[in-house]
């Protein structure tokens, strides 16, 4: 399976109705696939961190077995706005 930052970004944006998605390929010449993501979605409202991460993991259920390292940050639109103002 060919995974790219663009592919993951679009899938997360569509499936989680995200208003902002950043995907960084952190593979850096290693022989394993590694990504860091930031997802901002209203679907995270009222959900604790574990449930937010489960939503992301469910969205990428087919892709995660092919990814060695996966770091995620999940924010609500309100948290994202607050974070950018700091």
Automatic annotation (TrEMBL):
The keyword Calcium does not apply. SUPFAM superfamilies: BolA-like (SSF82657). Keywords: Acetylation, Cytoplasm, Nucleus. It comes from the Eukaryota. It is found in: Cytoplasm; Nucleus. One of its GO terms (cellular component) is iron-sulfur cluster assembly complex. InterPro entries: BOL2, BolA, BolA-like_sf. GO terms for molecular function: 2 iron, 2 sulfur cluster binding; iron-sulfur cluster binding. It holds the Pfam family BolA. One of its GO terms (biological process) is iron-sulfur cluster assembly. Acts as a cytosolic iron-sulfur (Fe-S) cluster assembly factor that facilitates [2Fe-2S] cluster insertion into a subset of cytosolic proteins. Acts together with the monothiol glutaredoxin GLRX3. Interacts with GLRX3; forms a heterotrimeric complex composed by two BOLA2 molecules and one GLRX3 molecule; linked by [2Fe-2S] clusters. Belongs to the BolA/IbaG family. This is BolA-like protein 2.
């Amino acid at each position: 399976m060919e995974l790219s930052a663009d592919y993951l970004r679009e899938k997360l944006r569509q499936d989680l109705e995200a208003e902002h998605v950043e995907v960084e390929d952190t593979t850096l010449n290693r022989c394993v696939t590694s990504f860091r993501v930031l997802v901002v979605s209203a679907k995270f409202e009222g959900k604790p961190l574990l449930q937010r991460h489960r939503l992301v993991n469910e969205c990428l259920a087919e892709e995660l077995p092919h990814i060695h390292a996966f770091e995620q940050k999940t924010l609500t639109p309100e948290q994202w706005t607050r974070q950018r103002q700091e």
